[in-house]
Amino acid sequence: MKMLQGSCVLNLSDKTIIFSVGRCGSTTLGMLLSHLGYQCLFEPFKLKDVHDIKQAAEILDNSGNFSCYKTLYYQAEEEVYKELLQRSGKIIYLKRKNELQGGISRAIVNQTNSWHQHPDKCPELNLSIINHHIKECRKSDRLMEQFPEAMVVHYETLMGCNHLRKRLEVLGEICSFLGVSLVEDERISMLLSPALRVNPEEVYSKIPNIKQIEQRFGSPYLADFPLFL
């Protein structure tokens, strides 16, 4: 057992933390692992304004018995995550190579409340939401530089490619990292189905101010973007 601030006790040595900035497929990964018997608790800090490690420890202590916790960068203070990550048994860092596409996706869901599928009509997107998301990606990357033992998984390889077999290969690597047996079945194939993939061109064609977004951040079809934010 490890003593943390405020004399609270929290043992995470046998737990995995799935850490992400959001819009990176972390919910799907948690569902996949739970289906395989590696039970995942989804976003335990959501809407709880977590500012210190003692509060985080109390939430996790009262959450039940789970193998891993899936959480997002903005749901707790960075110092809280630093402490939790230091004490976790294993870490999976789920991120996008293409930060701008993640920012656009976040702006769409924030403005439409459509979290798991993009709406037929898209409003003019708030550039500040996109900008904020990209900044969070950079901050999250800097935090994770302190944890080289973490397994880095990119959305583009787990959820973005068009071949089910390649997606299954990535899931297999994750399972090997965690010591989980991957048994392919209908549920696994459905969750990883390329048919569920959103077509970026179709989505961006519905964004009224896509040209403004490109002028501000560059093309969403490229992996690298201007550093001015």
Task: Give a quick set of tags describing it.
229 residues, alpha/beta, Rossmann fold, 5-stranded parallel β-sheet, two-stranded antiparallel ribbon, 43% helix, globular, disordered C terminus
Radius of gyration: 18 Å
CATH structural fold name of the domain at 2-100 and 138-198 = Rossmann fold
* Record field, number of beta strands: 7
What is the N-to-C order of secondary-structure elements (H for helix, E for strand)? EEEHEHEHEHHEHHHHH
Helix count? 10
> How big a fraction of the residues is strand?
5-15%
Task: Give the overall form.
Answer: globular
What separation lies between the terminal Cα atoms? Answer: 42 Å
Catalogue the unreliable spans: 1-7, 224-229
CATH second-level architecture of the domain at 2-100 and 138-198: 3-Layer(aba) Sandwich
Q: Average pLDDT, to the nearest integer?
A: 90
Class of the domain at 2-100 and 138-198 in CATH? Alpha Beta
Query: What is the multimeric organization of the chains shown?
Result: single chain
Helicity level, as a percent range? 40-55%
- Quickly give the structural class: alpha/beta
Q: Give a short account of the largest sheet.
A: 5 strands, parallel
In order across it, which strands form the biggest sheet? 4-5-3-6-7
